[in-house]
Specification:
Structural class: mainly beta
Distance between the termini: 30 Å
Largest sheet: 6 strands, antiparallel
Number of strands: 17
Number of helices: 1
Radius of gyration: 18 Å
Mean pLDDT: 93
Strand order of the largest sheet: 9-10-11-17-13-14
Length: about 200
């Protein structure tokens, strides 16, 4: 993530220096910069918007529901934001523990997983941790947004627990492919294959 703070009084925009690669606006999912070398772009930044960008090639798990505290978010579902690089690839990791004890160290109660999008397939695999149940370990993935996809697939097929199913998908107003309600646990192995 790249954040450009606005530190000049009454400014309505700023020059942002982007590192090499593809960068997407985190709210609109529009491509803000793409290049093999660093480049500067002027971006609008009214008081209502802080310029924040996600690097192409990354997958960021997010909890989208507004809550008064993080303790109320423990079982809230996740949204995966898959921002593709110029080769249509992305990867990311997630770490989850109960957030309040040392059970991650003493009982190996944590989730550490890797997400990879490659050749039209998104996979979730365990890196380490356990399959034990603790607060937050059963949270679901309720939405996947794939940003920067140049073509729209015909179907999206979920493989999970030795079964396959077709998922609902659509292109939203940001031109991102949205996969609705895969409803897989954040702690499970699964894959979604896009068929073009």
């Amino acid at each position: 993530i790249l954040v450009k703070p606005i530190s000049v009084r009454d400014a309505n925009g700023a020059d942002v220096l982007f590192p090499p690669g593809v960068w997407y606006d985190i709210l609109t999912h529009q491509k803000a910069y793409s290049g093999s070398s660093s480049g500067s772009r002027y971006v609008d930044a009214p008081l209502s918007k802080i310029p924040v960008y996600q690097r192409g090639g990354s997958i960021i798990p997010r909890k989208q529901r507004a809550r008064r505290s993080t303790t109320q978010m423990v079982e809230d579902p996740y949204t995966l934001v898959v921002a593709l690089d110029n080769s249509d690839n992305a990867e990311g990791v997630i770490y989850v523990d109960d957030g309040s004890t040392f059970n991650y160290a003493h009982k190996n109660e944590f989730i550490y997983r890797k997400f990879v999008f490659n050749n039209g397939k998104l996979t979730s695999k365990q890196l380490s941790g356990s399959k034990s149940v603790f607060p937050g370990s059963s949270a679901l993935i309720e939405k996947i947004a794939i940003v920067g996809l140049d073509r729209v697939p015909v179907t999206a097929k979920l493989s999970h627990n030795n079964s396959k199913s077709t998922l609902t998908m659509f292109v939203d107003h940001t031109k991102s492919l949205i996969i609705k309600k895969p409803n897989v646990s954040i702690s499970d192995d699964w894959s979604i294959t896009l068929h073009f």
